[in-house]
Design a protein that fits this description.
Blueprint (H helix, E strand, L loop, with lengths): L1 H7 L4 E3 L3 H10 L4 E5 L8 H4 L4 E2 L8 H11 L6 H21 L13 E2 L9 E2 L6 H14 L4 E5 L2 E8 L2 E8 L4 E5 L3 E3 L20 H8 L4 E2 L4 E8 L11 H5 L3 E4 L17 H13 L4 E4 L8 H4 L1 H9 L9 E10 L2 E3 L11 E3 L4 E2 L11 H18 L23 H7 L6 H16 L5 H16 L23 E2 L1 H21 L1
Helix pairs in contact: 2-6, 2-12, 4-5, 5-12, 7-15, 14-15, 14-16, 15-16
Catalytic activity: L-aspartate + O2 = iminosuccinate + H2O2
GO molecular function, one term: L-aspartate oxidase activity
Cofactor: FAD
Length: 514
C-alpha cells in the first residue's frame, strides 16, 4: 500500500461513493482523482436508496422561479434565496447531463419526461427513473462510468478517519483499511460522506451513515451550519426492519391517504392535508401515535391496481412485511430521513478550511433552510458536484505532507442511538437537550469508537438547544413559537465544546446550591 500512497500524492481525494462523490470525480476527469469508499460502490450509499427522484422545473406550466418560491416557502425563512435561485435554475440542465450519461428516466409514450407531484410542490416537477428506484438507476450509471474512467482510482474498503490540517489548510487524510492504517498526502479533499441516519434508532438511511463527515470536518476546525434541522420522513414502513423502509411521498402524490385505525383521515384539517410540508405531516403523525393511535397509508384506491408498477421497490418492501398494498393498509411512522444542516460551504462547495470541500447531504449550502422541499436533495447534489469539481480543478495542489499513519478506532454509534433518538427527535424539549449535551460532552472528548458519533450528536444537540424557537423541522415543545427574525446557525467544534462545558458547569453549580 505504501507505494500506492506515494503515487497518489497530490491527487484530489473524494471521501464517499454516493452520487455527489461519483459525479464530482467524473466532472474532474481527466484530472487524476482518488475516491475513498468504506464499502463497495453503490452498496451502502443513501443515494442508491433514494425513491423520490429529482426536482426540476421541466413542465410546460412550470418555471425555475416557481420552483424557487416553493423551496423558500418550505424552508421557513432560512433558505439562502440567492443560492436556491442559482441551484434550481441549473437543475434542468443537470437532469439532461444525467440522461446523456445514460440514466433511463421515466417517460411518457410520446417520449417526454414523466413528471410526478410531491408535497409542497405547486407543479408536477419530480423526475423519476424506474418508478421509485431513481437513486438506484442513477448510481448504476455513475458507478459504471467511474469504473470505466482511467483517471479515477477507486479504493474500496478504506474509511477516512481524520483529516491532517496545518494552519487551517488540508495536508492529507488518515484512513483505515483491512491491512493497516494508511496516510494519503493531498492538499485537496472533498467530503461526500452522506448523512446522519445511523445516529438514530429509526431511520431510512444506511446504518453506516452516522455523521462521520461532520466529525471529520469538525475535528479539522471547519464551520458547520444549521445542524439542528433534521428532516423526519412522515411515511416509513412501521415494522421490525432496520433501517425502516421508506414509502416515498410520491405515493401520496398519486392520491394515497393517511388514516388511523378507525379509518379517519386525521390530517384533513391541515392545509394540503397529506401533501402538507413534511415537518407538518411528521409532527401530526407523531402526535397521533403518541396519543395511542395507529397510523396507516391507504393506497388501495389510489394508486390502487397500478401500485406495484409505479412503485416496485415499495411494493417489494410491503410484500416482505406480509402486506399487499392493493388490499391492505400500510402501517407507517416518522423516521429520520435527511439532514438539512451540514458543513458550511459556499456555492463552489468550499468550507472554512482551505483545501476542503463538501458536496451532497454532508454539506450545508443554504438551499434547504429549515425544512427540505421533497426531491431537492439529489438535485442539489448533481448541480453542486459540477461546481465543486470546477473549484477543485482550479485550486493549487498545495503542500503535500508525508506522515506516519496512525490507528484510529472505527466509529460506532450503537450506544448513542437511544439518547439521540430521544433528545433530537420529531419534538424536542430544552431540559432533555441539556441532559443530552451533558451526557455527550465526556464521550466526545474520549478517543474510542463512540467519540466521533458523540461529536456529531453533541454539535447537533448544542445547535438545537441554542435555537430557542420552533421553525421548520426543529420543534421545541418548550419554545413552540417562531422567532420574528430568521437566522441561520453556525458553530465550530471548539464553540460546541465550550457551550457544553459551560452548561455542565452551571448545572453542577445549581446542584451544589440546592
Amino acid at each position: 500500500m505504501s507505494a500506492e500512497v506515494r503515487s497518489f500524492l497530490g491527487r484530489p481525494i473524494i471521501i464517499g461513493g454516493g452520487i455527489a462523490g461519483l459525479l464530482t470525480a467524473l466532472h474532474l476527469s481527466p484530472e487524476p482523482v482518488l475516491i475513498l469508499s468504506r464499502t463497495p460502490l453503490g452498496s451502502e450509499a443513501s443515494s442508491a436508496w433514494a425513491q423520490g427522484g429529482l426536482a426540476a422545473s421541466l413542465g410546460v406550466d412550470d418555471d425555475p422561479v416557481l420552483h424557487v418560491a416553493d423551496t423558500l416557502a418550505a424552508g421557513d425563512g432560512l433558505c439562502d434565496a440567492e443560492i436556491a435561485t442559482r441551484i434550481l435554475h441549473a437543475a434542468p440542465n443537470a437532469i439532461e447531463t444525467l440522461a446523456t450519461l445514460g440514466v433511463r428516466f421515466d417517460r411518457t409514450p410520446e417520449g417526454a419526461l414523466r413528471l410526478g407531484l410531491e408535497a409542497a410542490h405547486g407543479r408536477r416537477r419530480i423526475v423519476h427513473a424506474g418508478g421509485d428506484g431513481s437513486g438506484q438507476e442513477i448510481m448504476r450509471v455513475l458507478v459504471e462510468a467511474v469504473r470505466s474512467n482511467s483517471s479515477i482510482v477507486v479504493v474500496e474498503g478504506v474509511e477516512a478517519r481524520r483529516l491532517a490540517v496545518e494552519d487551517n489548510t488540508v495536508r492529507g487524510v488518515w484512513a483505515s483499511c483491512s491491512m493497516s492504517p494508511v496516510f494519503f498526502g493531498t492538499g485537496r479533499v472533498v467530503l461526500a460522506t452522506g448523512g446522519i441516519g445511523g445516529l438514530f434508532l429509526d431511520s431510512t438511511n444506511p446504518l453506516g451513515s452516522c455523521g462521520q463527515g461532520l466529525a471529520l470536518a469538525a475535528r479539522a476546525g471547519a464551520v458547520v451550519a444549521d445542524l439542528e434541522f433534521i428532516q423526519f420522513h412522515p411515511t416509513a414502513l412501521n415494522g421490525p426492519a432496520r433501517p425502516l423502509p421508506l414509502i416515498s411521498e410520491a405515493v401520496r402524490g398519486e392520491g394515497a391517504m393517511i388514516v388511523d385505525e378507525t379509518g379517519q383521515r386525521f390530517l384533513e384539517d391541515l392545509h394540503d392535508a397529506e401533501l402538507a410540508p413534511r415537518d407538518v405531516v411528521a409532527r401530526a403523525i407523531w402526535t397521533h401515535l403518541s396519543n395511542g393511535h395507529r397510523v396507516f397509508l391507504d393506497g388501495r384506491e389510489k394508486p390502487g391496481p397500478t401500485f406495484a408498477r409505479q412503485f416496485p421497490t415499495i411494493a417489494s418492501a410491503c410484500r416482505g412485511a406480509g402486506i399487499d398494498p392493493v388490499r391492505d393498509l400500510i402501517p407507517i411512522r416518522p423516521a429520520q430521513h435527511y439532514h438539512m444542516g451540514g458543513v458550511a460551504v459556499d456555492l463552489q462547495g468550499r468550507t472554512s478550511v482551505a483545501g476542503l470541500w463538501a458536496c451532497g447531504e454532508v454539506a450545508s449550502t443554504g438551499l434547504h433552510g429549515a425544512n427540505r422541499l421533497a426531491s431537492n436533495a439529489l438535485t442539489e447534489a448533481i448541480v453542486c458536484a459540477r461546481w465543486v469539481a470546477e473549484s477543485v480543478a482550479g485550486s493549487p495542489i498545495g503542500i503535500r505532507t508525508r506522515s506516519t499513519a496512525r490507528e484510529i478506532p472505527a466509529p460506532d454509534p450503537l450506544s448513542l442511538r437511544p439518547l439521540l433518538s430521544r433528545s433530537l427527535g420529531v419534538k424536542r424539549d430544552g431540559e432533555v437537550l441539556r441532559e443530552a449535551v451533558s451526557t455527550l460532552l465526556p464521550l466526545a472528548k474520549r478517543h474510542d469508537a463512540a467519540s466521533d458519533p458523540a461529536i456529531a450528536g453533541l454539535m447537533i444537540a448544542v445547535a438545537a438547544l441554542l435555537r430557542e424557537e420552533s421553525r421548520g423541522a426543529h420543534y421545541r415543545t418548550d419554545c413552540p413559537d417562531c422567532a420574528v427574525a430568521a437566522r441561520r446557525s453556525r458553530l465550530t467544534l471548539d464553540e460546541a465544546l465550550a457551550t457544553a462545558a459551560e452548561l455542565a458547569s452551571s448545572s453542577t453549580l445549581e446542584e451544589t446550591e440546592q
